[in-house]
C-alpha cells in the first residue's frame, strides 16, 4: 500500500513522500533540509534529482509554497548542504551495520565473505589499489553484486577505528538496502553537479 503522496514543487509530479527531499522554513526564514521529515511547520518537497532540487530552491517558488517571504540569499549553498547531508547519511548507514555487527572490513576478510556468499552489499574505497579493486570486483561479479565506490580508505578506516580500510562488506539485507538507498540518493545528487 503506497504511503502519503506529495508533489515536487519543481516538476509537479507526485510521489510517495518518503522518496522526496523536504525543505522547511524556520520562523526566522532560515531554510532547513528535513531529511527525516519530522520538523514542524510548512515544508516543500522535491524529487531527489539535482534538476528538481535546484529549481525548487527558487525564492519565488519557496515564498509561494511556504507562505512566507524567502530571500534569494537564503538558498545560497543549499544544494551543497544537501549533498553533504546525503553523504553523512551514507556513512550513518555503514555505522548502523558496524553497530549491529553486520559490517566487516579488511581485504582478506571481505574476500573470504564474498567467496562464501555472505555479502549483501560491497563498498570499495575510491582510492583502493587497482589490484585489490580488480580482485574484489571479480569476486563480486561472481556473486552478482555491484561494488559501490564510496569514501576514501582513511574515511572507511575511521568508521572501524583503524587507520585505513579499502573494502567493507554489509551482510544484513535490511542494512544493505538502507545503504544502497542512501548511496543512491547521494550519487544522484553528486553526479548531477
TrEMBL record:
Species this chain originates from: Desulfurispira natronophila
InterPro entries (UniProt xref): Ribosomal_eL30-like_sf, Ribosomal_eL8/eL30/eS12/Gad45, YlxR, YlxR-like_sf, YlxR_dom
Annotated SUPFAM superfamilies: L30e-like, YlxR-like
Protein name per its UniProtKB record: DUF448 domain-containing protein
Cross-referenced PANTHER family: BLL0784 PROTEIN, YLXR DOMAIN-CONTAINING PROTEIN
Domain YlxR residues, every copy: 6-74
All residue ranges annotated as the Ribosomal protein eL8/eL30/eS12/Gadd45 domain in the record: 98-174
